[in-house]
Amino acid sequence: MTRRSCAIYATGIVCAHLLIVGIALVVAQVFQTMIHSRLKKEITLTEKSQVFESWKNPPPPVYMEYYFFNVTNPEEFQAGGKASVKQIGPYTYREYRPRENVTFLENGTKVYALNPKSFVFVPEKSVGDPEVDLIRTVNIPFVVVMNELNSYSFFLRSFVSMYMRSLGVELFITRTVHEFLWGFKDPILTKIHSMKPDVDEYFGLMWKKNGTHEGEFVFHTGEENYLDYGKIDTWNGLRQMSWWSSNQSNMINGTDGAVFHPLINRNELLYIFAADLCRSIHLAYVDDVEVKGIQAYRFAPPSDVLMSPTDNPTNAGFCVPAGDCLGTGVLKVSVCRQGAPIVVSFPHFYQADPMYINAIDGLSPNKEEHETYLDLQPTTGVPIRACKRAQLNIILKRVQGFPATKFLNHTIFPIMFVNETATIDDESATKMRTLLLILTLVSNFPVLIVGMGIILLLVLLFLLCRNRQKKNEVKRIDFTEAFHSFTTAKDDTAYTQVSGKPDEPSETTANQPSKNGSYIAMSPVEAQKC
Fold it and tell me: In this structure, are 272 and 416 located in the same domain?
């Protein structure tokens, strides 16, 4: 066997093995299964897991951007006209949210934690000084007291109204941004506090929320089932709330929005429990996006989350009391806000019924600025970028006994909205890209094997064609040499005389030309006599 033949046979054997092994691995998805199994074991909330530390102390910076709606025509609105507002902001604060008192329960299958939040003002990301800039908006303590007295007698309401006017309390107030956020001593609440000490005399939208937590959480670690990774088991000892009017609405579903299970697909719904909204919401896949070179799936709340029960009957459970429902795009959360007529929505009533938007001048909802979304890396389930946007509103209506509301139109009045944003930091993004590159190479290793097999197959075909070409050339050379030998022998042929006469020519034939038929021997030997 020649060296060329050995090379062809060796190439063919290696090629066949690579193709068979590679195709078998691709079909069986051995490496993908191995990686997925590894991810399910590694991505858990256990002390030994690589994600535990980032869950305990999240590295991406979180920013809270506060926007206020400054009322420009309070007198006209109180006279029965349409309110006009102007958006002012953002006033940005850096939010810190470490997990504290972390304790593992039930053999590491659950973990208890508190999540206190603290806020630090960031002037370079803000439009002004919150301790100087003034905002004119609805006097929320006034509206809360008025709403509480709505079920009392007309005379008591009138008396309280006159007393509040004597204190200089009006429907609209002007305070600094800092006071609205972090609290000020309110004259009405101060008076109530003197009679009922459990009522705080200070009011602020973020009063007592700097350095405090939203409750005690117990999370699933994902040790038993990777799909439960990060899901809330209990909140303040509850597995189900009691505020709403249906069991489904009272369910505590999903995670707190900080982590999600690995291997996310586009067809699933993700659930988040939002303590500030007093309910769970779901998010659906929207689009594929890229953040700092990392491919991610974007999830966002679909329009049915705050849809009217008329269009989405499952939302009827959020009507309290049962049947007392608002329109699409708004949710009344009075049941978990100590009876205050508070309504939440997306900023500028995005995705809400047009009647709420048209009731106020100065609103312009749009998807880019007002949509809540979450960008997740699907393999690891890690949030790459998040924007949580929510608006705080209050219900204003006429209440007999309070002259300030005599001409008011029933309005869901916007107070402010917050844009809570977080994007993966550069260091974490670099680590994520490296991890994903390794996972991609490992999971595609069978494809590389098949590719090498195909390359060797092409080499084998080339060698076979080359070998065949060489053989044809050898055959042509042999034929040419044979033909050349034949023609050379023909030129050197000797002719032998057949006749028995002597070789000497006779006188009669000596001068005649020789004839072709006289010689038959084609050998260069001497002619012999018979």
Answer: yes
